[in-house]
Amino acid sequence: MNIFLHTAIPFPSPFAFPKISSTIISKPVKACAAQAVDSIYLLQEMLQPVKSVQEKKHNDIWQLFSEAWQNIMFLNNQRMVAMEELDKMKRENEILLDRIEQLEMKKQNSCGKDRLFIKSDLLPRIDSMVLTGMISTGEAAGLRMMILDSKVSVADDFSDIHHKNDAELLAELRHFSDKCKKKCFHIVHVCTEMEPVIPVGSLASYVTGISCALQRKGHFVEVVLPKYAGLILDEVQGLREIEAEFYSYFNGQLHNNKIWTCVVHGIGITFIQPIFHSSFFSRERVYGYADDFERFSYFSRASLDYILRSGKQPDVIHIHNWQTAIVGPLFWDVFSKQCLVQPDKLALCGLEPSRLHRPDRLQDNTKTHLVNILKGGIVYSNKVILLSSIHSKGLIIRSLSHGLEPTLAIHMDKLLVAPCGFDDSIWNPSTDHYLPQRYSADDMKGKAVCKVALQKHMGLSENASLVLVGCMFSEVSDVDLENIKALVWIASKKGVQFIFMGLSKISSVALESLQEELKDDNVIFIKEYEEAMSHLIFAGSDVILCQSFDDPVLQVLLKAIRYGAAPVATNLVDKQFRLIIDHDFERTNFSQYISNVFGSLSLSQAIDEIVRIPRFTF
């Protein structure tokens, strides 16, 4: 860098030197030359201090400039560091706020579950007091009503019941007098399966779903189940055995049972474990044995005996399928004062065959020498719920009644049709915490975000305009594999993306063989089921391939429509699902659009329709 100094240091003028007299000039030349040399030395000596001062000033200024420059660079670096720290603090603040929001939501959910757990745990404790003779059935009924009418207050006052024995708890219950005016119903399910403790089929998810929904509305729900050997206890809270003898009637004798209680998802569960007939529920499978009628009629009678003995007075007893349908005639014929079996077997649980083996009661409509237990459940129930995701009441009575058409026609006023159901508090894109961006039928922008997020996560080309097909199967047959293979070969050549995920070991093995044959960058296979990924697949897919539209276990059809994906059947027979709108399902313009447009399309036709009219604009 060059530095120029102007007027900062005065330079001596040549006219400032002493004048040389004329006498000197007149001297000889040699003398003049010598004198000139002396003058030069004199001039250098006079200029030397000036040069030193100039250099010193120059060095000082350069040093000052260097220090100033270093200070400027330091301050600039500090500013950059401060800006980075500020950005970091902002990000941490956002993360902290999100975490606080999640914790608050978790706390609210936990508080709600804790209240349900406490209430659900109090009721079995009262059962224990009745069975051990501490209180009468009348007092037990009053205590139960007090708890049901005062749900929130009871939860606040009895939060530490696990540390109290029955005598201490009874003393506190007797002193508890706050009552709520709100009316709620006490509902007891007598059934043979329930998620997550014994998930066998569609009944398991239905029992859990309807129980949770009823409890959210303020009703109290209990479930009575057999104590199977293969119970899944991962989500069970407070499992305990009631230390009391409990006998139930079967085949002309009284038989001892063990009673276990626990809470699952805030729902009080009672397990009945036979002692003498211990083999009834200690088997590998839940259904499919020659003595299924004996097994479940024993359980049905024991369930009613338990309800009576413990002093329960439920407003509703909800029975499920033929296995517990005999509770209907048992309740009205005894307690108020496989499906086809020999009439004399009714005597096993205390019923009179001669009174019930009649056309208007339990006599089978086709095989008149037998009694139909499911028919007895229909005849003796106040309401009958038919579970179907896609069929109307009329179609079920005409074509899917399994020989019960005359009975269903006579009792049509009792019949209600409901989808097999899933927990819409979990499977709802507007509240789904697994999704990167939530959305609803009124605002579908989040679906495109979910689609790109799914593509990115699976290593697919990230483009919301590409058609993405999700495929989730529980079981895959050889025929299904051939259909799927043909569908994928054709569609993948058009740039369509596929994501397969198995829901069981059987489907995973089948999909592995499919993966070997379908080696394509647009086809992705997920070997093990992941809950979060299943939600993202429904949200990010344009099309969901379904093994069957009448799918009571997985409910792929209903979930696809809820998440704005078009369901398409893998087989050619099961292609019609427009009846889904005929009964109790959330109707929106978007679900109506999906049903009307995609209700009878093949995969190729559905893809062409999506390409023609992108559905994110609806």
From TrEMBL:
Residue ranges occupied by any Starch synthase catalytic domain in the UniProt entry: 186-408
Coiled-coil features, chain-numbered ranges: 72-106
Keyword match Transferase: yes
This protein's pathway: Glycan biosynthesis; starch biosynthesis
Superkingdom: Eukaryota
Recorded GO MF terms: alpha-1,4-glucan glucosyltransferase (ADP-glucose donor) activity
Protein name, per record: starch synthase
Species of provenance: Rhododendron griersonianum
Phylogenetic classification of the source organism: Eukaryota, Viridiplantae, Streptophyta, Embryophyta, Tracheophyta
